[in-house]
Amino acid sequence: xxxxxxxxxxxxxxxxxxxxxxxxxxxxxxxxxxxxxxxxxxxxxxxxxxxxxxxxxxxxxxxxxxxxxxxxxxxxxxxxxxxxxxxxxxxxxxxxxxxxxxxxxxxxxxxxxxxxxxxxxxxxxxxxxxxxxxxxxxxxxx
Length: 142
Description:
This protein is 25% helix and 27% strand.
Protein backbone atom coordinates (compact mmCIF):
# COMPACT_ATOMS: atom_id res chain seq x y z
CA UNK A 1 0.00 0.00 0.00
CA UNK A 2 1.35 3.44 -0.92
CA UNK A 3 1.15 6.48 1.37
CA UNK A 4 2.23 10.07 0.82
CA UNK A 5 3.44 12.16 3.76
CA UNK A 6 4.36 15.84 3.64
CA UNK A 7 6.38 16.28 6.82
CA UNK A 8 8.52 14.28 9.24
CA UNK A 9 5.60 14.46 11.68
CA UNK A 10 3.28 12.80 9.15
CA UNK A 11 5.89 10.11 8.51
CA UNK A 12 6.10 9.48 12.26
CA UNK A 13 2.30 9.35 12.50
CA UNK A 14 2.22 6.65 9.81
CA UNK A 15 4.75 4.62 11.79
CA UNK A 16 2.72 5.13 14.95
CA UNK A 17 -0.42 3.84 13.22
CA UNK A 18 1.40 0.77 11.92
CA UNK A 19 2.69 -0.07 15.41
CA UNK A 20 -0.78 -1.03 16.59
CA UNK A 21 -0.86 -3.88 14.07
CA UNK A 22 2.52 -5.38 14.96
CA UNK A 23 2.94 -8.72 16.69
CA UNK A 24 5.86 -10.16 18.65
CA UNK A 25 8.63 -11.24 16.29
CA UNK A 26 7.73 -8.81 13.50
CA UNK A 27 10.67 -7.84 11.30
CA UNK A 28 10.36 -4.62 9.31
CA UNK A 29 12.85 -4.22 6.46
CA UNK A 30 13.38 -0.56 5.54
CA UNK A 31 14.81 0.68 2.26
CA UNK A 32 15.33 4.25 1.11
CA UNK A 33 18.01 6.80 0.46
CA UNK A 34 20.08 8.48 3.16
CA UNK A 35 17.88 11.05 4.91
CA UNK A 36 14.66 9.69 3.41
CA UNK A 37 12.91 9.34 6.76
CA UNK A 38 13.53 5.80 7.93
CA UNK A 39 14.44 6.87 11.46
CA UNK A 40 11.44 9.24 11.58
CA UNK A 41 9.20 6.28 10.72
CA UNK A 42 10.85 4.22 13.48
CA UNK A 43 10.31 7.08 15.97
CA UNK A 44 6.61 6.78 15.17
CA UNK A 45 6.72 3.00 15.57
CA UNK A 46 8.30 3.44 18.98
CA UNK A 47 5.66 5.95 20.06
CA UNK A 48 2.91 3.61 18.84
CA UNK A 49 4.43 0.77 20.86
CA UNK A 50 4.48 2.96 23.98
CA UNK A 51 8.24 3.50 24.08
CA UNK A 52 9.03 6.72 25.94
CA UNK A 53 12.77 6.87 25.25
CA UNK A 54 14.25 9.19 22.64
CA UNK A 55 14.76 7.25 19.40
CA UNK A 56 17.94 7.95 17.46
CA UNK A 57 19.66 6.37 14.48
CA UNK A 58 21.89 3.45 15.47
CA UNK A 59 24.36 4.20 12.65
CA UNK A 60 27.46 3.83 14.82
CA UNK A 61 26.12 1.35 17.37
CA UNK A 62 24.43 -0.96 14.80
CA UNK A 63 21.45 -1.59 17.13
CA UNK A 64 19.51 0.43 19.69
CA UNK A 65 17.17 -1.35 22.09
CA UNK A 66 14.02 0.28 23.45
CA UNK A 67 11.88 -1.26 26.17
CA UNK A 68 8.98 -0.18 28.30
CA UNK A 69 6.38 -0.43 25.56
CA UNK A 70 3.83 -3.02 24.51
CA UNK A 71 6.68 -4.84 22.72
CA UNK A 72 10.43 -4.25 22.85
CA UNK A 73 11.83 -2.46 19.80
CA UNK A 74 15.20 -3.35 18.31
CA UNK A 75 16.30 -0.68 15.83
CA UNK A 76 19.07 -1.83 13.50
CA UNK A 77 21.11 0.20 11.03
CA UNK A 78 22.86 -2.05 8.52
CA UNK A 79 24.50 0.78 6.56
CA UNK A 80 27.98 -0.15 7.77
CA UNK A 81 27.58 -3.93 7.52
CA UNK A 82 29.02 -5.70 4.52
CA UNK A 83 27.10 -8.96 4.70
CA UNK A 84 24.46 -10.97 6.48
CA UNK A 85 27.25 -12.88 8.23
CA UNK A 86 28.07 -9.73 10.18
CA UNK A 87 24.42 -9.48 11.24
CA UNK A 88 24.55 -13.00 12.67
CA UNK A 89 27.82 -12.09 14.43
CA UNK A 90 26.02 -9.37 16.42
CA UNK A 91 23.35 -11.80 17.61
CA UNK A 92 20.52 -11.42 15.08
CA UNK A 93 18.95 -14.75 16.04
CA UNK A 94 18.95 -13.73 19.73
CA UNK A 95 17.06 -10.54 18.90
CA UNK A 96 14.50 -12.51 16.87
CA UNK A 97 13.98 -14.90 19.77
CA UNK A 98 13.22 -12.06 22.22
CA UNK A 99 9.74 -11.50 20.76
CA UNK A 100 10.04 -7.83 19.96
CA UNK A 101 9.85 -5.79 16.78
CA UNK A 102 13.04 -5.64 14.71
CA UNK A 103 13.19 -2.49 12.58
CA UNK A 104 16.03 -2.89 10.08
CA UNK A 105 17.28 0.18 8.20
CA UNK A 106 19.38 -0.45 5.08
CA UNK A 107 17.91 -3.95 4.96
CA UNK A 108 19.20 -4.45 1.42
CA UNK A 109 22.69 -4.91 2.91
CA UNK A 110 21.52 -8.05 4.76
CA UNK A 111 18.64 -9.18 2.54
CA UNK A 112 19.73 -12.83 2.50
CA UNK A 113 19.30 -12.96 6.30
CA UNK A 114 15.69 -11.72 6.23
CA UNK A 115 12.70 -14.00 5.82
CA UNK A 116 10.41 -13.54 2.84
CA UNK A 117 7.49 -12.81 5.18
CA UNK A 118 9.01 -9.70 6.77
CA UNK A 119 7.15 -6.44 6.46
CA UNK A 120 8.76 -4.13 3.89
CA UNK A 121 8.75 -0.34 4.10
CA UNK A 122 10.28 1.63 1.23
CA UNK A 123 10.63 5.41 1.70
CA UNK A 124 11.39 7.65 -1.28
CA UNK A 125 11.54 11.41 -1.69
CA UNK A 126 8.51 12.97 -3.34
CA UNK A 127 8.06 16.26 -5.17
CA UNK A 128 8.63 18.69 -2.28
CA UNK A 129 11.51 18.76 0.19
CA UNK A 130 9.47 17.07 2.91
CA UNK A 131 7.21 14.88 0.78
CA UNK A 132 7.78 11.14 1.05
CA UNK A 133 6.30 8.25 -0.90
CA UNK A 134 6.08 5.33 1.53
CA UNK A 135 5.24 1.86 0.29
CA UNK A 136 4.32 -0.77 2.88
CA UNK A 137 3.99 -4.39 1.84
CA UNK A 138 4.88 -7.95 2.57
CA UNK A 139 4.33 -9.50 5.92
CA UNK A 140 2.53 -12.66 6.87
CA UNK A 141 -0.86 -11.41 5.70
CA UNK A 142 0.33 -10.36 2.24
